[in-house]
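## retry 2 of 3
previous attempt timed out at serialization; input unchanged, resubmitting
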Amino acid sequence: MKFPVCDLYPAEEGFYCQCVGCPIVSNSTPGCVLEELPNGDYEFVGATPNGGVKAIFIFTNNEGQRVAKEDAIHVEIRELNAKGKVIGVLFGMADPDGSANPLYSQEEE
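## retry succeeded, writing output
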């Protein structure tokens, strides 16, 4: 499943999320499906691959510290259910082409 999907940046087959590498991501861009939160993370509201209702995108450097999206090496995507419980976590590389072939995926009960 390609997730999340917008009409701004095409998702290629085999890529989990085109938003990770999208140069357009912005709260002020009409049609963008991510919203930047005050702490620098990004939120997607909608159906997620593991049945969640939203996802939080956390961008980090090689030391695991949160950094701006454009400076990130890694991305962690946390899928949450309607009660706010994490139901799935995906770790991937943040590169200009998006997050291809997740490095690790964990589904929680």
